[in-house]
Amino acid sequence: MEWVFFCSATAPGLVLTIISWIYKVHPPKSINYLYGYRTRRSMRNQETWDFANYIGAKMMLWVGISTFIAGVIAYFITPRWAMGISAFFLIVAIFAGIFWCERQLRINFDKNGRPLLDKDPSNLG
Q1: Which secondary structure element, helix H or strand E, spans residue 92, and what is its range?
Q2: pLDDT tens sequence across 25-50
Q3: CA–CA dist 71, 8 (Å, integer)
């Protein structure tokens, strides 16, 4: 029965990590309403779309890995509450990640989607 608690605590982070890897390898090519990091700011033009999906994949990867680690730690502290703790951590991490992505868009593009700084997402820290 204990393995069920472990799997339920670590599965969200593991699944999100796998999805983020797929998302990073196969990013959406054009602006669409089904797949990708879709916000008003990210969908302004193709340049903001590409930038947002690059950093969105990075954000999802970190959220997935950190949620997996939080689930493992929660399991060893309190197995019966591990799934709830992991789910709570996932929700908080997703909101923090979205805030970070939107902030990066705000820093790098004006309100019309024109670049303010170096627009190459590979130069991000």
Answers
A1: helix 82-108
A2: 999 999 998 989 999 999 999 999 99
A3: 8
